[in-house]
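User: I'll paste a sequence; please echo it back and then give the predicted structure.

Assistant: Echoing your sequence first, then the prediction.
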Amino acid sequence: MNAHGLPMKRLLTLAAALAVAGCTGTTESTPSLAVPTIAVTVAPSPIATVGTETPAPSEVPSPTLTPIETPVPTASLPIPNGAWRAAPAQPSLTTSQLQDVAWTGSRFEAVAVNDTGGAFLDSTDGRTWHAHATGAIDGLPSRIAAGPGRLVVIGTVGGKPASWSSTDGSHWTWHSSNFPATLSGGDVLSVTDVVATSTGWLAVGRENPACNVACGTNPVRAMAWTSIDGLAWTRVSGQSAFEGGGIEAVAATGNAFIAVGLARGHAAIWRSLDGTAWSRITDDPMFGPPSGAGTQAIVVANGVAAGHGSVVAVGMAFDAGAGGAPIVVAWRSDDGLAWTAGPVEGAETGQVFSVAATTGRFLATGPSGVDSCLGGIWSSGDGARWACEATDPAFAGFGPYAAAGSPTIEVAVGLTSVGWDESGGHGLPGAVWWRAAP
């Protein structure tokens, strides 16, 4: 737990020791973030649609990729801004911690974890949510992407990288151990994000060395894979720009792919025109710890989005604030090549896990608290500066992990400590906040 009673994201125990999933042995937090992992113990998903695992597919040739910019919803008529509201408590939410969310063009689709593994949730209005089982025992979905006629999810099954694919959001096919990789002895593979392309899908991740302390802060190399169907993946090999770094998130701008992560203690950004040939943006002091940061300070970029004529990246500087507190950081670009840092309101002691392009703006999200941005939602029109959107006292206890928008509704998904019985030692229940789009 952090100082505000909110847990670090399961995938972002990464905050204290980036990508704990990529480590072996006992993992210790950095001094600035003494945050234990919280076990998720909740009831099973109320609606179960059984998924199926496909037979291990033979590798398919890597397709020629053309970036498809993630659709930014456009409302046909202006809708006045409305106050954020909590979605009603309902079994589909309170039994799972929501990890990520996407707008498909007709509904919101979210992925979540619970005590049976994981769940998929959908909603047309951001208020009423229906849950579906992943169909995989020990299946933990982490990221979701929507493309033409298909949804693809990446995560793990039995601790091994896996992916799910669906054409309707209700019936899913999954396959595990389907991300080819040649690892050094003891190293661990993490697949961290996925995005749609003109001919299929692009997934990204990292190779982490075996470690016991500060896991993930010194990745071996970044990785990328391509797929036609979201189930059979081909590794993008021969990328010298990937050495010594690790990718956490990826986005498409319409004419390029932009990936962000960490390299040698600094935030790192990569760019590719086709998803198969990558270059890394030259390191700069703005990607490193701010002046006055602690000796163990590192900076990681863990979210990226494109829209509204901008590309934005968000992340955290650890051991950078007073007493070793984290600081939220952000950058923007017109083309993914030249970047500038943007100020963030309530940055110190805050956490940011992801960023999304919604109607007319960007939303960045992460469990934060009263000393930062209470509800952990920041907004920006172009990424040049960020304002805290979630100051209402009703946000107390809410920890968002991701956001998405339709033409009329924006949602932030995550978990909440409201009503949580700490004596039981169980994970926090899931939660969604929604509002009318600007």
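The first helix runs from residue 14 to 17. Confidence is low (pLDDT under 50) at residues 1-51, 54-63, 74-80.
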